[in-house]
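Listing S7. Sequence submitted for prediction.
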Amino acid sequence: MRKAERLFQIVTLLRGRRTVITAEQLALALEISTRTLYRDIQALQLSGVPIDGEAGVGYRLKAGYDLPPLMLTSDEMLALLVGARMVRAFTDRELAHAAEAAESKIRSILPDKLLQRAEQQPYCIPIVGQDDRFRDIHLILRNGCEQKRTVSIQYHSLESANTERCVYPLAIIGWRQSWMLLAWCELRQAYRNFRMDRIQRATLLEQTFTTGPHLSLQHYLSSEMHMDHIG
């Protein structure tokens, strides 16, 4: 771990406690020696971080201290901008607007050197090709997942049959070529994956559902992911 990362972790650990924490506890959490920990504490104190305490007693961060804004590396900046652009291109309107706002905030704090790289970065994700129907369906399914509400869908299956399903949406999974809805299907009484480009209509219902040990994304991933049921 780099020194800057250690210093950040020390402040984070101190902020999460109301009582003092000993140097030994901090050093153990960070997997460093107590000698290194003492030097890091001193460096933080000299930089103005209000840490009370001393060696042999323990340390505590004064109440009300906030961490300064994080500085991004060049690759971290690029990862965030590319991710925001993908969200704008491939998800619902609400998330797209949020991603656009986040991208503007990121760009506004970049120093000139990073801003220049952001303008010259090689990834091109055009924000075209998704019609309003797809974005509306995406939002309905996301709300269903977040609010644990049943969704009624009209689905065009791989066998070219149109069916009506009531499903419990559990997750929206992004594969290389398409989005998939993982849900519990009332008709099949089993987990099913639905290609979102084959969902013709989606309606968010008032009926809610409850996840548990035998009905959840975690249960699917741990026990049934090898059974790739589509539709």
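Caption to Listing S7: primary sequence and predicted structure tokens for the chain studied. Helices lie at 3-15, 23-30, 34-46, 74-90, 93-108, 112-120, 132-147, 217-223. The first strand starts at residue 51 and ends at 54.
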